[in-house]
Amino acid sequence: MRLEQLGADRFNEMNRLGSIAFTYPISDPEQKPDPNDAQQQELLRGRERWGMIDEATGRLMGGMLLIDYQTRVGEHWVKLSGVGGVSTLPEYRRAGVIREVFRAVLPHMYEKGAALSGLYPFSHAFYRKFGYEVYGGQNRVSVGLEQLRAFTGPDEVRMIESEADMLAARAIYERFAQTRDLAMRRELDYQWKKEVMDGDPYKDLAYKYLLLRKDARGELEPCAYISFKPEDNGSNGRLASAREAAYVDGDALRRLLGFMSTFYPHYRRLRMALPGDVNLAALCPDCYDVSDSIDHGYMLRAVNAKLLLESQPVTPIMKLAAQAGALGMSIALTDEFIPQNTGRYELTLTPEGLECVQTEFAPADIEVDIQTFTQLVTGALSLRQAGYRAGLRINTVTPLAEALFTGRPQYIADHY
Length: 416
What we know:
Layout (H helix, E strand, L loop, with lengths): L1 E5 L4 H12 L15 H7 L2 E7 L6 E14 L2 E13 L8 H15 L4 E4 L4 H5 L4 E2 L3 E7 L11 E4 L3 H15 L11 H9 L9 E8 L5 E13 L5 E10 L2 H11 L8 E6 L15 E6 L3 E4 L2 H6 L5 H7 L4 E8 L8 E8 L2 E7 L6 E4 H8 L5 H4 L5 E3 L4 H6 L12
């Protein structure tokens, strides 16, 4: 078998492979992308299709799609290579097709400058074979709307219909995303419309609202938005199922909750995803009426270990401590699929910032596998939490390691 980056001549073959693997119909198996369709061309930008070819027959055996994104790590936007459409024809399964594709494309991601790779797995165990691991999880909460009357609502509400209000909502999301690890930067229109703003309120029952409040001068400013659809919740009444809600601060979140209370009693409950730094039960009058569930449907993998270590956030207190003397630690990492990552990393914190030097593999303060390393540098686990994993060995406890790897709020809402 032979790996190829697939060109336009195999576009239809890749689509047919996906149809068989994921059991969905395609109306025209021979249809090619329309070069004059702006939306189709936007979807193709930043995407690579990789496939394994049967050298005897020339058939496409299996393959995957790589999609360029940017995601948040600490105070930085870093490049993430999203993996989608991973599939193999039934007649070629259990032959190591996908393993060999990953063996080639993971170093390719590194060379292209990616810091992370992410995917939505059909099986966590399968993708762990290639270094992927679950992140901290998305907290999905359900709360009764009646009790949200305790919160003050916004000063003005507008259904999002104009381009100006759409842009205002996007600006809110940018502020919201900057403080949550793993939030995606939505640079392309299709990302925004697909996740949040598609659908008509009358045809599709897709409701989108922009919330405004008065600033210190008494002028209205956008502070939050919510996009939701009604959902039948059986005997418990109608549910407002939020596709996304974002807000610039705690006051804006409370105003959003107050606004949603106005849908009671036509709706009984609100379901929404919350970032890791929001504990809704601690805000609501009746915490018995708040239920939480954690969704672990996303996996990540470190692609460039050095870049991720250099992206770790350094707090003012850490910089102040470094004024008394540089703080240091070392990490030893092994990576079967990206040999460029295997090595010993010396981290030094000075008042100027965090420095990272990679050398050949050798014993270190912390010895870690790629899965546990990924969880540490993305804030999914603190150092103490990671200590329960078999893939972490702490030889020396250092103040810098305990300060760097504390766990951080995460937010994932984008799908691919």
